[in-house]
Amino acid sequence: MGIIIAILIFGLIVTVHEFGHFICAKLSGIKVLEFSVGMGPKLLQKQKGETKYSLRALPIGGYCAMEGEDSTNVDPRSFRNAKLWKRMIVLVAGAAMNFVLGIVMLMILVCMMDQVPTTAIKGFSGQRNDDGTVTYYAESYETGLRHGDKLISIDGTRIYSTLDLNYIFDSISSSEGHKVVVKRDGKRLTLNDVFFEDKAEGGGVIDFGVVYKDKTPLTVIKGSGDIFMSMSHIVGLSLKQMLTGQLHKEDVSGPVGVVTAISEQTKNNESIADAIYKLIYMTALITINVGIFNLLPVPGLDGGRLLFCFIELIRRKPVKPEHEGYVHLAGMVLLFGVMIFATYNDIARLITGG
Question: What is the pLDDT of residues 130-146, one digit of tens each?
Answer without folding.
Answer: 877 888 889 999 999 99
